[in-house]
Specification:
Blueprint (H helix, E strand, L loop, with lengths): L2 H11 L17 H19 L21 H19 L14 H19 L20 H10 L1
């Protein structure tokens, strides 16, 4: 026997019957109760037969409409179904290639180059740079030039 069956049988054997809720079974009706119930049934049936229907309005039956799902609902359900099918059956994924160093030597060489570049950046002497003075040039005419231009026109 497998382990699941053995465990199941063990659980059945260890079950505590004190945890069960007692069930209350209805007792059959006595003679006077049956007569009382039949009297009520007869009275209700007589009221239904003698009911005056003339005061009721006759409403024509409505046509039964079939509500079909919208196109977006159908599309969403199809997509959900295809995704679930893919999860259950498994989907073949594309192979990917990851770029990894060919050898530990190449990795060490790349690290050494990176360290050398960082060292060169920190050891750079800014004093060797030539100072540059930014000259502000304004190509827009001044107020005087605008006044002279207006007077000419």
């Amino acid at each position: 026997m497998d382990m699941l069956t053995i465990k199941h049988l063990k659980d059945i054997g260890e079950f505590d019957h004190a945890n069960l809720t007692p069930v209350k079974v209805p007792e059959p009706l006595s003679g006077p109760e049956i007569v009382k119930q039949e009297t009520w049934r007869n009275r209700i049936a007589e009221e239904l037969r003698s009911f005056d229907r003339s005061g009721l309005k006759l409403i024509p039956p409505r046509k039964q409409e079939t509500l079909l799902p919208s196109q977006s609902t159908i599309t969403a359900e199809k997509q959900h179904l295809s995704l679930m099918t893919g999860l259950i059956s498994g989907v073949e994924l594309n192979k990917t290639k990851t770029k990894e160093p060919v050898s530990p030597f190449d990795l060490a060489r790349l690290e050494r180059i990176k360290d050398q570049v960082e060292e060169d950046i920190h050891s750079f002497d800014r004093g060797r740079l030539t100072p540059v003075v930014t000259e502000l040039r304004c190509f827009l005419p001044g107020a005087e030039e605008l006044i002279l231009e207006r007077e000419e026109n």
